[in-house]
Amino acid sequence: MHYRLHHSTRYDYSAEVALSHNEARLLPRELPWQRVGKTELAIHPQPMRLRERRDFFGNRVAYFSIQELHGSLEVTTTSLVTVSARPLPEPGHHQPWEQAATCLRQGTDCLEARLFMLDSDFVGADQALADYARASFTPGRALVEAVYALNQQIFTEFTYDPEHTTIATPLLDVLASRRGVCQDFAHLAIGCLRSLGLAARYVSGYMETLPPPGQPKLQGADATHAWLAVFIPGWGWLEIDPTNGCLPDERYIILGWGRDFSDVTPLKGVMSGGGNDRLTVAVDVIPLAEGEAV
């Protein structure tokens, strides 16, 4: 699938800002199944400094600073991306999940994943999370089969409710209420897996959405999306999406990944001045014909 991504973020301040330093994680990653073509980053006001780097997780980060009085900040990215099918474990991948947890604790071939077993800012291991996950992670069950089951368990038992949670809502409150958004469900699944001694990372990106039948797709009506990937010893990282109860496919475009949302916040920074900011975000994921792709 070929896509044009357009992501615009605008802050309007109640008082002028004299100085700001910012990081944007809005540039898609290059992956074996994801090819990134032309990418443009437009910032207004014009920054004094702008440079790109890779963070600890390999995500693309644009750092910029603005050193003039400004009453608003607008950051717009446009990217051309081609996404193909992701690899999946063979049906015969029958490693029990307990054996995978042992490998992560003791095996030298799992070192890259151990960071994603640890507590992070928004996700901490807890017995309540482990207890919830045991409906899917029964004794001796194959890890891949159990992961698929947990994906469906959260999808079936939780209600998508954008009014119920904020970024600060504790994970155990999400578990108790059975309500939240994609970010909450990704954090919940990660917490369940880490509480069982497994490794999971948070994935940030986009998913192509379709309007209701007979209605046009509204400009700017798409949004960023969150899901997760689970480490399968001896195979690699397997992505799941508990919000939609499916496995990410060609409709899913990855921006970056980390331990949780705090590692892949789309835009963050510090500033001198401002206050009572008004945030406006518009996202478009536009499918392209073969001839339009880079």
TrEMBL record:
Checking SUPFAM superfamilies in the record gives: Cysteine proteinases
Q: Which Gene3D superfamilies match?
A: 3.10.620.30
Recorded hits in InterPro entries, A to Z, give: Bac_transglu_N, Papain-like_cys_pep_sf, Transglutaminase-like
Top-rank taxon: Bacteria
Protein name listed in UniProt: Transglutaminase
